[in-house]
Amino acid sequence: MSENGETKLTRTKRKWAEEGRFLTGDVATGHTAGRERLPPGQHLVKDWPVLDLGVEPEVPLDRWRLEITGFARNRTTLGWAAFTALPQHDLITDIHCVTTWSRYDNPWRGVLTRDLLALAEPMAEAEAGFVLLESADGYTTNLPLDDFAAADAVLATHWNGAPLTREHGGPMRLVVPHLYFWKSAKWLTRIEFIGRDRAGFWERNGYHMRGDPWAEERYSD
Ligand SMILES: Nc1nc2c(c(=O)[nH]1)N[C@H]1C(S)=C(S)[C@@H](COP(=O)(O)O)O[C@H]1N2
Ligand SMILES: [Mo]
């Protein structure tokens, strides 16, 4: 790798560490001071709608696998025991779905994407600027590595103190609170580090490549 690449990686890691400053104790909330909590065009709901492509795969824990592949130094496949042996964190974050509902204060428990990234060691930004996620129902979605690495992004196994239900993506789903919820892959099975952004399912069907709710990045034109 070029020296420039190493420098970039170091800088990225430092930035991640700085963003993690609000990780006080074991609970993090993603509310950013000075920004409206409810993004434009959203309305609050109290229930938790279920949205997916209609197939809700049953994934028994003894057959559960998480594959880490692409531009990473440690490409590997984790089973449930190895995955849940990673540090566990509790976070309370908001959900913003592109179909205009938002739901506040969802209590998650799981593994921070930070901790998974420390294990995977993605290569410098030039090689691994993005991630492509794949799920057991065939769903895919893409996002920038920096967004995936957000301090409050979690590979969640629990919601409100109980194991995540199958309809909401159990045994494990991603939660990236600062992007629209379609980026939060349910039944996640594969994380691929990629160099050039590659559209996932909804992104191929007109949704935005990034999906920032505060910028209303709903659709690509
Ligand atoms: N594997 C998978 N993940 C998925 C989806 C899907 O169809 N399959 N739908 C996405 C969309 S569009 C939304 S809004 C949320 C819905 O999550 P929920 O059903 O827990 O509310 O999951 C996202 N993650
Ligand atoms: Mo969605």
Structural category is alpha+beta
CATH third-level topology of the domain at 62-89 and 107-215: Sulfite Oxidase, Chain A, domain 2
Instruction: Give the C-level CATH assignment of the domain at 62-89 and 107-215.
Output: Alpha Beta
Unreliable stretches covering 5 or more consecutive residues: 1-6, 20-28
Return Rg in Å.
Answer: 17 Å
Number of helices: 5
Describe the structure.
The protein is α+β, with helices and mostly antiparallel strands and 221 residues long. It has a domain at 62-89 and 107-215: Sulfite Oxidase, Chain A, domain 2 (Alpha-Beta Complex). Helix content is 17%, strand content 29%. It is built from five helices and twelve strands. It has helices spanning 3-19, 80-84, 113-120, 145-148, 201-204, and strands at 27-29, 43-44, 65-70, 76-79, 89-96, 101-112, 130-135, 140-144, 154-159, 162-163, 173-175, 188-194. The strands form two sheets. Strands 1, 2, 5, 6, 9, 10 and 11 form a seven-stranded mixed beta sheet that branches. Strands 4-3-12-7-8 form a five-stranded mixed beta sheet. A hairpin with a 2-residue loop joins strand 9 (154-159) and strand 10. The radius of gyration is 17 Å and the shape is globular. The termini are far apart. Bound molecules: the ligand Nc1nc2c(c(=O)[nH]1)N[C@H]1C(S)=C(S)[C@@H](COP(=O)(O)O)O[C@H]1N2 and molybdenum atom (MO). The ligand Nc1nc2c(c(=O)[nH]1)N[C@H]1C(S)=C(S)[C@@H](COP(=O)(O)O)O[C@H]1N2 is lined by residues 48-53, 97, 135, 137, 139, 168-169, 181-182, 184-187. InterPro entries: OxRdtase_Mopterin-bd_dom (IPR000572), OxRdtase_Mopterin-bd_sf (IPR036374). This is Sulfite oxidase-like oxidoreductase. Residues 58-202 form the Oxidoreductase molybdopterin-binding domain.
